[in-house]
Amino acid sequence: MGVVYYQYKSEKEICSMPVPHAFISVSELKQLILTSGKHGHGRTHGRAREDIIIFNAHSGEGSFNAK
C-alpha cells in the first residue's frame, strides 16, 4: 500500500490518501479523493477537480494540476 499527498489550491493543509497499490492513475486518484470524507463538506462542496495539486512528498518536486 502507498500514500499520496494532495492539496487544494485554496488550502494550506496537505491531505493524505492511502492507495491500494504502489502505482495509481491520476483519474483513479481523483476518484478516491472525490469519494473521501475530506471532499464535499461545507464550503468545499462542489470544488472543481482542477483545484487539486499532486506532488512528490519526498522531494517536493513535480507539482502539477490534476486535470
From TrEMBL:
Transmembrane segments: none annotated. One of its GO terms (molecular function) is zinc ion binding. Pfam families: DWNN (PF08783). Residues 4-67 form the DWNN domain. It comes from the Eukaryota. This is DWNN domain-containing protein. It comes from Zea mays.
